[in-house]
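Reposting from the mailing list since nobody answered there.

I have sequence plus structure tokens for a pair of proteins and want to know whether others read the tokens the same way I do. The first protein:
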Amino acid sequence: MNHILRPLVDELKLLERGIVIDGLRVRAKVFNWACDLPALRKTLGWLSHNANKGCTKCHQQLRKRPEDILKVGEKRTGREHREVGRRLQDMYRRGEKTRMENLETDTGVRYSIVNELDYHDPVKDHVIEPMHNLLIGVAKRIFQTFTSDGLIDITKMADRLEGILRSGLVSRLRLNFFVVYGPRLA
């Protein structure tokens, strides 16, 4: 991904210093990166949402227990993210693949050339398009955890949904929901 982003980052560095167009000095910076979550992670140097430390805002470790899902860890900083990225890049150049992978796992960070933009803060300067959060399975994973730990009774939920459908208040829907989450099929 970095080889694709290098020309963009080089031009953004040039625009930050400024260029002259028709006698007028023009400067530009990227304020926020707006993209879906997978693109954000690849572009700004984060591991997947399933990573041990998958949150882009804090250091909370991924937990399996439902009561821990909403806990917030120590806040991340852009400076720290950038520094870890530099260390990872140095390890890559020295061929220290195992050490590099261990540091990525411990921090949830990957090197990204975008973080060479000094004004850019990888923790604060991004906007996530929320629909993709649903599509990549974050909600599904939380729901599966809650049902497997007994916090949500899937049978009661199925009965309620079937009752709503029978009432005629909602048009007939295919309940693929239960194919994914089981144990009952609609």
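The second protein, same order (residues first, tokens after):
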Amino acid sequence: MKRSALAAALVLACLSAQAAADAPAQSASARIVGKWTWTRPDIKCVETQEYRADGTLSVVSGAERSSNTYVLASEATANGFHKLTVKIVKDSGGKDCFDIDQDHTGATVTHYVMIHPNGDKLMLCHEDSKDRCIGPYQRDKQ
């Protein structure tokens, strides 16, 4: 009786492990959802980006606040980045963490995003490479 209970437990453990291994990986769009924070070290300016599942994005960068929409490519580039296209719906102006004080309402910008495999860090790059990047942004655990 003990052997059959042990065997059944072993089979269930193996099936559970196989089901976890067979589960599809979470999409990049699902992984980016949440609040991410980066601090510019030289001036201690904080930028927070909050990606929502409905495709909207709120950014607070220094004194600037903006409301945006975004589209994140589902497929990664050959370099492992996901193309992120952001449309700035409303920019309140104010100096941001990059010392820019302009209203960018209506502009569309393209970035390339790489999310760390454990999901707690994000790099935001200007091109499909690690040459010109900001970050890492840290996921807000709240």
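Reply #1 (J.P.):
I read it the same way you do. The CA atoms of residues 88 and 106 lie 5 Å apart.
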